[in-house]
Amino acid sequence: MRPCPTHAPPQRPEPAPELSRASAPRHKAPGALALLALAAALGGPPPAAAGASGAPPAGAPAPAVTAQAGAPPGDAAPPGDAGAPPGDDAAPEAAPPAEGRPAVSPVQRLEERDTPQRACSFTLPVCVHAPADVPGAALLESLAHLEAAMRAYDALGLPRPVQDGTLGGGPAYDLYLERGPRRGPLRVGHDMRALGDRFDAASAFAVVAAPAAPGRGGCASASDVAYALGHAVAARLDAGAEEGALAMTASYLAAVAAPCPAEELAAVDAFQRAPERALTGAALGALDGALLFPWYLDDAYGTGTPAQIAASLLAIAAQSTPAGAARFHAEPDIFDALRASLRSRGKDVDDLLLEFAVARAFLGSRSDGAHLTDAERFGDFGRVRFEWSLPYATLPRRVAPLRPIEPTGATYLWLDLSAESAAAPGLQAAEITFVADWELPALFRWAIVKVDRQGAEAGRVEVAGIFGSSRAQRTVVGLDGLSGLLIVGVNAGSMIRNRPFDPDDAPFMPHGYTVWLSR
Prior knowledge:
It is built from 10 helices and 16 strands. By secondary structure, the protein is of the alpha+beta class. The strands form 4 sheets. It has a 5-stranded mixed β-sheet, covered by helices on one side. A 5-stranded mixed β-sheet has the order 8-10-15-12-13. Strands 9-16-11-14 form a 4-stranded antiparallel β-sheet, with no helix packed on it. α2 links the parallel β3 and β4. α2 (136-155) crosses α3 and α2 packs across α4. The model is unreliable at 1-37 and 39-94 (pLDDT under 50).
């Protein structure tokens, strides 16, 4: 275990045949599918480590959003009067159901004349199509990957993709191979909404690069195939789900069914280097580091079987779009399902987002073994980017992030206490004043995590956001024996109560903040 750094890391660039589509009944997700069942699955996580107590400081500075780091309170202009935020009574009427993804997929199936080769499984409803010049061995290798992925999803109890009738020559799931090397994201598409289903469900397909050489496709080829089939499973559960939710679910399923360290390291590294990005900001087609979120749900709230919560959320959030509509109805979404489920447990999505934000700070070489299982395997690629690393001796300081924070995105600051802790054990009598100000109408949640000299969490102080306020403040005591304080913030979305975060609102509006630290 490597303790948190004393300096911020350098910036880096950014089995049985199913019914036909026309009459297939909706398949339920495994495990906790009904709302109450999912709420039971989302049992409260282990209690957080005891946090330090403290009272709000008297006469805390009122930093301006545009103030520079290190400026004393006296030099900071007071923030302008932005007006009182809209309260519950003044809030606008709830918006009509959001329009989701196009009902007609922008990705189309390849023509049969362009993919004359076809190989189908003798035991599973899957087929692979390829151009004439693709080696037969590559075709069979992809089919083997497809069979392995479907067996893995069967073992997890996930439903199989909707069968597509005569599309692709038969009702099996179709995977199309392209000539040439793997140059970019695979292309996943869906067919029209399955007739006769009460909720939105659609068959799906994918176009992927053929393995570079027979027998040498490696885990990347298997990961692509598992991702494609994972997308089809998600489209069975909720064809109208948001693109980011589908990408996150397909990425997680692929990581479970066909682990590929090289692909996962790259995806997690990109995700951790941009913690300010929304969890549902990924595009379909490539493994995305947001797979950490459903992984965390399973790890902290699940019952031991992977993918149960992710699949259940999609099933609960399924909607019904009228035939002929140009776009799927996108309400409810997976965050609506989370809100309803957590509410029955006395929690809300803001709490969950903050818990996850803290957990991803202890990933890779910063893992303390107490937040995510098997988190050490990502090494330095799993380290989340800190906005600032501030030595205790330089306080007071006021800092701002490099980039504003999107809804559900997170931000991290490190206050280094190691030098003072080693030289003067009297830090136990010291205290740190924390004041955060942010832009309206965002609602930020904060946690101040005490990190000991072994890099493990020794305590936590959570600073709840208050609807109608854009400021949070807290005094933290009991600093003796600590390596530092990890300050974690998360943009929980709008403070307007009837306009919570909606994944369909992309592109998301990010918001900035400033943090004042003094001793």
